[in-house]
Amino acid sequence: xxxxxxxxxxxxxxxxxxxxxxxxxxxxxxxxxxxxxxxxxxxxxxxxxxxxxxxxxxxxxxxxxxxxxxxxxxxxxxxxxxxxxxxxxxxxxxxxxxxxxxxxxxxxxxxxxxxxxxxxxxxxxxxxxxxxxxxxxxxxxxxxxxxxxxxxxxxxxxxxxxxxxxxxxxxxxxxxxxxxxxxxxxxxxxxxxxxxxxxxxxxxxxxxxxxxxxxxxxxxxxxxxxxxxxxxxxxxxxxxxxxxxxxxxxxxxxxxxxxxxxxxxxxxxxxxxxxxxxxxxxxxxxxxxxxxxxxxxxxxxxxxxxxxxxxxxxxxxxxxxxxxxxxxxxxxxxxxxxxxxxxxxxxxxxxxxxxxxxxxxxxxxxxxxx
Length: 370
Fold this sequence. Notes:
With 370 residues, the chain is mainly alpha-helical.
């Protein structure tokens, strides 16, 4: 009886869209700057990047497109377990790194915080839930974040949920079914925006289900773009699309958010994904795109530990505009360098080790696999 060897399908790695990789870095940088600015300007109408939080919706849309591109034609061959292993290897090392950094910042914040209010058992439980991505919004002075030691993990929680639903259901569905689900999810997103006045929710216990609406539409429409081949050939390149993406984050915060934000998420971000997949970077910017894509996830997952310290510093000292600007600029540079260090020293070695072990196991004949 002939034996089918699935290892080549499992181990095959597709080429990346370099401009989309670069745009992921632009979005990550926007999130970091937004998180600094929201401490300084609680009145978002005075915040020049008040819609930086929409970068998460761009991530979700990009994720749907990339997952469909990478796995639609091979998940049936590699199986659910190998898909889940691949995603855990890719995502979870930085979930752990961000949780550890968040715990250290919580315990040793030189500018304030109240770790003494919580007993060791509670702190340990919050930390374990953080590294296992189990929502546990119990820390009041962290705004009842779903993940008190690393707030951005809320989006990774929903990313995991989307990946599970994709592997169990979505990859089997045809384009028409995906379209119907996308329309329903879009209606839910509009309802959330209208009810709350914006799409800022999802990160805390009280706004938990807003996150479900945000990823449901964006992930589904990303799948739909790939399945429908809605790729628009163009010459905008990385520079042009970076400007267009940044406009969404720089959009003024106003009473029209319940309309403008859904329009951006429903139509503008999918358009940018379609344009990004249809263009290439210039040779001069190719390395920038590659670096931007590589640093985006480490930067997103490691920056927030410093944000709590910055918030306590800002609250106590209220620095002037010039000093505040210098602090944020220097902090962004240092956080990018720190994210690069975490990526090189921790994330890549761990992922390479786990991937190597996985390949070794897959390359063995089935009769020799334990």
